Protein backbone atom coordinates (compact mmCIF):
# COMPACT_ATOMS: atom_id res chain seq x y z
CA UNK A 1 0.00 0.00 0.00
CA UNK A 2 1.38 3.39 -1.00
CA UNK A 3 1.44 6.29 1.37
CA UNK A 4 0.49 9.71 -0.05
CA UNK A 5 1.20 12.98 1.72
CA UNK A 6 -1.63 15.50 1.44
CA UNK A 7 -1.35 19.23 2.05
CA UNK A 8 -4.30 21.47 2.84
CA UNK A 9 -4.88 25.09 3.70
CA UNK A 10 -6.62 26.19 6.86
CA UNK A 11 -7.78 29.31 4.94
CA UNK A 12 -9.69 27.32 2.34
CA UNK A 13 -13.39 26.90 3.14
CA UNK A 14 -13.66 24.22 0.44
CA UNK A 15 -11.10 22.03 2.26
CA UNK A 16 -9.05 21.22 -0.85
CA UNK A 17 -6.05 18.97 -0.46
CA UNK A 18 -2.94 18.88 -2.62
CA UNK A 19 -0.34 16.19 -3.22
CA UNK A 20 2.27 18.81 -4.13
CA UNK A 21 3.52 21.21 -1.44
CA UNK A 22 4.39 23.89 -4.00
CA UNK A 23 0.82 23.95 -5.33
CA UNK A 24 -0.58 24.01 -1.79
CA UNK A 25 1.65 26.96 -0.89
CA UNK A 26 0.65 28.82 -4.07
CA UNK A 27 -3.03 28.24 -3.26
CA UNK A 28 -2.51 29.47 0.29
CA UNK A 29 -0.72 32.61 -0.95
CA UNK A 30 -3.58 33.29 -3.38
CA UNK A 31 -6.12 33.03 -0.56
CA UNK A 32 -4.02 35.32 1.65
CA UNK A 33 -3.76 37.86 -1.17
CA UNK A 34 -7.52 37.72 -1.73
CA UNK A 35 -8.14 38.27 1.98
CA UNK A 36 -5.93 41.36 2.04
CA UNK A 37 -7.45 42.72 -1.16
CA UNK A 38 -10.91 42.21 0.35
CA UNK A 39 -9.95 44.24 3.43
CA UNK A 40 -8.59 47.02 1.20
CA UNK A 41 -11.76 47.10 -0.91
CA UNK A 42 -14.05 47.07 2.15
CA UNK A 43 -12.12 49.97 3.68
CA UNK A 44 -12.24 52.05 0.51
CA UNK A 45 -15.59 51.17 -1.07
CA UNK A 46 -18.17 51.13 1.69
CA UNK A 47 -21.09 50.84 -0.73
CA UNK A 48 -20.15 47.27 -1.71
CA UNK A 49 -21.47 44.32 0.27
CA UNK A 50 -19.13 41.85 1.96
CA UNK A 51 -20.02 39.22 -0.65
CA UNK A 52 -19.26 41.59 -3.52
CA UNK A 53 -15.93 42.54 -1.94
CA UNK A 54 -15.06 38.88 -1.44
CA UNK A 55 -15.88 37.97 -5.06
CA UNK A 56 -13.98 40.97 -6.42
CA UNK A 57 -10.94 40.20 -4.25
CA UNK A 58 -10.87 36.56 -5.36
CA UNK A 59 -11.22 37.60 -9.00
CA UNK A 60 -8.21 39.90 -8.67
CA UNK A 61 -6.16 37.31 -6.77
CA UNK A 62 -6.95 34.57 -9.31
CA UNK A 63 -5.94 36.89 -12.16
CA UNK A 64 -2.89 38.38 -10.45
CA UNK A 65 -0.55 37.78 -13.40
CA UNK A 66 -3.01 39.31 -15.83
CA UNK A 67 -3.35 42.43 -13.65
CA UNK A 68 0.44 42.70 -13.24
CA UNK A 69 0.89 42.50 -17.01
CA UNK A 70 -1.79 45.16 -17.53
CA UNK A 71 -0.21 47.45 -14.94
CA UNK A 72 3.16 47.07 -16.66
CA UNK A 73 1.78 48.63 -19.84
CA UNK A 74 -0.28 45.97 -21.60
CA UNK A 75 -3.88 46.73 -20.54
CA UNK A 76 -5.27 44.74 -23.46
CA UNK A 77 -4.62 41.48 -21.58
CA UNK A 78 -7.58 42.31 -19.34
CA UNK A 79 -9.94 42.04 -22.30
CA UNK A 80 -8.59 38.65 -23.43
CA UNK A 81 -10.88 35.80 -22.45
CA UNK A 82 -9.12 32.76 -23.93
CA UNK A 83 -6.23 32.43 -21.45
CA UNK A 84 -6.45 30.91 -17.99
CA UNK A 85 -5.92 33.40 -15.14
CA UNK A 86 -2.48 32.16 -14.04
CA UNK A 87 -1.22 31.34 -17.54
CA UNK A 88 -0.74 34.87 -18.89
CA UNK A 89 2.98 35.46 -18.24
CA UNK A 90 4.42 32.14 -17.23
CA UNK A 91 3.15 30.03 -20.14
CA UNK A 92 2.12 27.21 -17.81
CA UNK A 93 -0.91 25.07 -18.20
CA UNK A 94 -2.98 25.02 -15.07
CA UNK A 95 -3.28 21.62 -13.48
CA UNK A 96 -6.18 20.52 -11.34
CA UNK A 97 -4.92 16.93 -11.27
CA UNK A 98 -3.32 17.29 -7.84
CA UNK A 99 -6.38 18.82 -6.20
CA UNK A 100 -8.71 16.63 -4.22
CA UNK A 101 -11.86 17.94 -2.60
CA UNK A 102 -12.75 16.40 0.71
CA UNK A 103 -15.95 16.71 2.65
CA UNK A 104 -15.71 19.06 5.59
UniProtKB/TrEMBL annotation:
Pfam families: YebG. Residues 79-88 have a biased composition (Acidic residues). InterPro entries: Uncharacterised_YebG, YebG-like_sf. Gene3D superfamilies: PSPTO_1197 like (1.10.10.710). Residues 75-104 are annotated as: Disordered. This is YebG family protein. It comes from Oleiphilus messinensis.
Amino acid sequence: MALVTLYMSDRDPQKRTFTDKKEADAHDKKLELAENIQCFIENNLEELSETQCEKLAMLIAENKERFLTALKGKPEVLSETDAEPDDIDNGKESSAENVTKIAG
